[in-house]
Design a protein that fits this description.
Elements (H helix, E strand, L loop, with lengths): L1 H55 L21 H9 L4 H25 L1 H8 L3 H13 L11 E2 L5 E6 L2 E10 L3 H14 L6 E8 L4 H14 L3 E5 L7 E6 L7 E10 L6
Parallel strand pairs: 3-4, 4-7
Antiparallel strand pairs: 1-2, 2-3, 5-6, 6-7
Amino acid sequence: MLAELLTACDQLVKEIIAVYAPIAEQQREDSLAKLRSELTRRVEVVQTVNRVHEQLGISLSPAPAEQQVPLTPKALGAEAFHRRSAAGEPLPALVREAREGVISTIASFATALESLPETAGHLAEFGEEQLRDVLLFVLNANWRGQAAGEVFTNRGKTDISIFAADRRLFTAELKWWHGAKQLTAAIDQLAGYTIARDTAACLIMLSKAKNFTQMQYTAETTIAAHPHITGRIPTPDDKPARVQLRSSVDEGRMIELVFLPVCLTLPTT
């Protein structure tokens, strides 16, 4: 009885195998075909990318650390300032971030002047006012939005003021170098020109001096000796020098003064 049952089970297994073995084999073949097709497609994609890579000469792998170029966040502009202020971000932090962005823009403008002496020379023929207007043009590309109340104004011929959220963010003076006496007068002007809640100013000093290194030394010595300068603010070597300026209107208020000398090697005619 048991032997017959085992024989029947064995026969049943053989019949099931006979029925489903071809189906399993077909599924295996189908799966292998799909796998081959997908692998072939991926290989073709990789080969195409490699061909484009070779033709363009653009590396798709990470560059060595010494060759990597750091990305600089976009400077805070008028629209973002207003939006983030309305969202409740602390105003002092926003003011500092915006101010640093303005300083970077002005420093880039100064670098451009030094790098394009012929263009700078044409502008210099018209005087400080034209250079100031070009700088205003550059700054207004980022600090617009008059409907929100943020506008640029200028007093006199060289002064630049940036306003946002009903307060002045930044004041800058652009002047030609005429010696230590004129620099002292410019610092006096900034010390007396700033108003309540002003915390930063910039003095852009354009120089045609052939010995620019000597000019810088004279300027730094003059600044350090000024009675309203209370000390130097540590800054990285690649950033403009900064000093602490005591207001002549309110002696308890300190202003961060950025000094930015610009060497203009004007073309000879």
